[in-house]
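// run 5 | inverse folding | seed 20
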């Protein structure tokens, strides 16, 4: 038996903020705005995991009105989210993410992100795919007003 889940997220980019992507801090003059560390990649993985088991969404579990989550490292959110999945008797088959960002080039950080995500979830790095694309200067990603990401996960019954 398998379950599929999908996640989508957007964060605004602003000067003077830190840019966290896939658990890695990427040097850039702009960073992502959010209540937590605004790591769009980790957020879409959380949402895809929750979606796979119809467990609502990241905002439901970690409300941005709760001061406990102010500036929180999203790796902690992913740990807690994946615990919900494993507690329910499921495990990750694989996750596939696409990060949409005009600048900076994130290619040098992709392998580090995959290793970080796999480490946080306690899965094999081969189960974690992170891809990146620009939007060819189009839309809010293209004008560097924001960053977005998509993720799909497949869960299987824990062996
Ligand atoms: Mg988010």
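// decoded
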């Amino acid at each position: 038996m398998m379950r599929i889940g999908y996640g989508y997220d957007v964060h605004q980019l602003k000067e003077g903020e830190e840019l966290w992507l896939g658990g890695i801090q990427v040097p850039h003059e702009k960073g992502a705005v959010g209540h937590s560390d605004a790591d769009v990649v980790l957020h879409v993985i959380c949402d895809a995991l929750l979606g796979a088991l119809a467990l609502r969404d990241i905002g439901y579990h970690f409300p941005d009105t709760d001061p406990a989550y102010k500036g929180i490292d999203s790796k902690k959110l992913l740990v807690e989210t994946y615990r919900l999945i494993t507690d329910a008797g499921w495990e990750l088959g694989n996750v596939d993410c696409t990060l949409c960002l005009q600048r900076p080039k994130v290619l040098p950080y992709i392998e580090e992100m995959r290793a970080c995500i796999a480490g946080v979830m306690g899965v094999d790095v081969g189960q974690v795919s992170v891809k990146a694309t620009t939007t060819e200067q189009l839309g809010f990603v293209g004008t560097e007003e924001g960053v977005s990401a998509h993720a799909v996960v497949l869960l299987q019954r824990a062996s």
